[in-house]
Amino acid sequence: MTDQNDLPQLIPPHGGYRELQSYQMAEIVYDATIVFCDRFIDRRSRTHDQMVQAARSGKQNIAEGSMASGTSKKTELKLIGVARASLEELLLDFQDYLRQKGLPLWSKDNPNAKEVRKLCYQKDKSYLTYKTYLEASLPEVAANTIICLIHQTNYLLDQQLRALEKEFLKNGGFTERLYRTRSQMRKTSK
Fold first, then answer.
1. What is the pLDDT of residues 111-127, one digit of tens each?
2. Where are the domains of the chain?
């Protein structure tokens, strides 16, 4: 007879989303979006609410996907995809804001954009890392800073989706683990 410790773990460790760089960046994007919208967009407007909700959706879906990952890789992949889509929607809102106000969108090579991107590599970054760009700046600087942050977060989510896809193809999902474990139990109990 096989010892329980010899069997594969049916429900693997899951959660831990607060340690994910994608979650940490999405949280910064969410906090920055709230500050931006409160500063520059009428609180009663539908745009204000939609931008805040898109930023929230980005962050919350990463957390929810991470928590669901123990029993459903399919759900995790779906929710990380929803987070990515929400942040893309938010990106368009910020680009629209700049275009509609006649403000320039920083190119990737813009010195200001490079400066903001460099901050992403700080070890313990948080909203405070970007605070002066968001709270003590013109709308052009604040919007472009958040656009840089969204691009960085989307890059991380794209990497995360590729890794999840690879892991799923290699190890399968929960249903396959259930079947393998049950089959192994049957073989060892004979």
1. 999 999 999 888 889 99
2. 13-188
